[in-house]
C-alpha cells in the first residue's frame, strides 16, 4: 500500500509509503488520499498527522513521468484533483500537522502547506521547483505559500525554484518548529498534545475564525470573530472552563 491511515494517541496518522520514489505523488495516490481523508472526520480523532515513510522524504512531489504528453483538459483535471484532495486537509475541523521528515518538494510541500502546522526535522529540505520544468505549482502552492511567508518570499521561492533548509523555513515562517530529530513522531504528537487537550468545539471555531477572516478587511474579520466567539460561549465546554477557572481546578472538557 502507498498510503496507510492508522491512529496513535487519539491522532490519525497518514503515512505516504512509496520509498522507492521518495514518496512522490501519482494520480492514483491522490485519489486514494482523497478517499482516506473523507474517513478522518468519522474516526473520532482529535488531530491529523501526515508524514512520509522512511527518513529521506516527506513527499518529493509529483511523479514527473505521469505529467508528460497529457492534453490540456487532462492536466486541468489533474490540478483540480490535487487541489480538492489538499482542500480536504485544510477544511478539517481538527488541527493537522505535516511532519516533514526529509524532502518536501512540489506537490509534497503543497500538501504540507494545506496542514494547520508544519514541523521539520533538521535535515529537511523544502521547495517548489516546478519553474525548472517550465511549469508553476498547481496544487495550491501559489495561494498558500504567500499567506504564510509573504508575497516577496513566496515569489522568490516559486520563481527561482530554490530549496530552503529547515532553519530558513523556520525563520521565514514556513514551518512552526524544527524538531530535535531524535524522535520526530513523538515530538510531533507532543506538539499536537499542546492543543488537543482542549475542547474540540473551541479548537474548530478558532481554526474557522482565522481561516475565514484571512481575506477579509479587519472590520469584517472582527464580525466573524464576534459571531464565532459567541458560539464558543454557548458550548458546555465554555461553561466548564469558566467554572474550573473560578474554582481553581483543571477543566474537564467533553467536546460539547
Could you please describe the fold and organization of this structure?
With 256 residues, the chain is of the alpha/beta class. It folds into 2 domains: 3-196, Alpha-Beta Complex (2-enoyl-CoA Hydratase, Chain A, domain 1); 200-246, Orthogonal Bundle (Lyase 2-enoyl-coa Hydratase, Chain  A, domain 2), CATH 1.10.12. The protein has helices at residues 27-39, 72-90, 107-114, 141-149, 151-160, 166-172, 184-196, 200-213, 218-233, 236-246; strands spanning 3-8, 11-16, 47-52, 57-59, 96-100, 103-105, 117-120, 125-127, 164-165, 177-178. The strands form 2 sheets. Strands 1-2-3-5-7-10 form a 6-stranded mixed beta sheet, with helices on both faces. A hairpin with a 2-residue loop joins β1 (3-8) and β2. The longest helix is centred in the first third of the chain and has 19 residues, at 72-90. The protein is globular and about 65 Å long. The relative contact order is 0.11.
Amino acid at each position: 500500500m502507498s498510503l496507510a491511515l492508522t491512529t496513535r494517541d487519539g491522532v490519525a496518522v497518514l503515512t505516504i509509503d512509496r520509498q522507492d520514489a521518495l514518496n512522490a505523488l501519482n494520480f492514483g495516490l491522490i485519489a486514494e488520499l482523497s478517499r482516506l481523508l473523507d474517513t478522518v472526520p468519522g474516526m473520532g480523532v482529535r488531530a491529523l498527522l501526515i508524514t512520509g515513510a522512511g527518513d529521506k522524504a516527506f513527499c518529493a512531489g509529483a511523479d514527473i513521468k505521469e505529467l508528460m504528453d497529457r492534453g490540456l483538459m487532462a492536466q486541468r483535471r489533474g490540478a483540480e484533483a490535487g487541489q480538492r484532495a489538499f482542500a480536504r486537509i485544510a477544511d478539517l475541523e481538527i488541527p493537522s500537522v505535516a511532519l516533514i521528515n526529509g524532502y518536501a518538494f512540489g506537490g509534497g510541500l503543497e500538501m504540507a502547506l494545506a496542514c494547520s502546522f508544519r514541523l521539520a526535522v533538521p535535515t529537511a529540505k523544502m521547495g517548489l521547483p516546478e519553474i525548472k520544468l517550465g511549469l508553476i505549482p498547481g496544487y495550491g502552492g501559489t495561494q498558500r505559500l504567500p499567506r504564510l511567508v509573504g508575497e516577496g518570499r513566496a515569489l522568490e521561492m516559486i520563481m527561482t525554484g530554490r530549496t530552503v533548509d529547515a532553519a530558513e523555513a523556520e525563520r521565514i515562517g514556513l514551518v512552526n518548529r524544527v524538531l530535535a530529530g531524535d524522535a520526530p513522531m513523538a515530538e510531533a504528537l507532543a506538539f499536537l498534545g499542546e492543543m488537543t487537550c482542549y475542547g474540540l468545539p473551541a479548537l474548530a471555531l478558532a481554526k474557522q475564525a482565522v481561516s475565514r477572516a484571512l481575506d477579509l478587511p479587519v472590520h469584517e474579520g472582527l464580525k466573524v470573530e464576534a459571531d464565532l466567539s459567541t458560539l464558543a460561549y454557548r458550548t458546555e465546554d465554555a461553561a466548564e472552563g469558566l467554572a474550573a477557572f473560578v474554582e481553581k481546578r483543571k477543566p474537564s472538557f467533553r467536546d460539547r
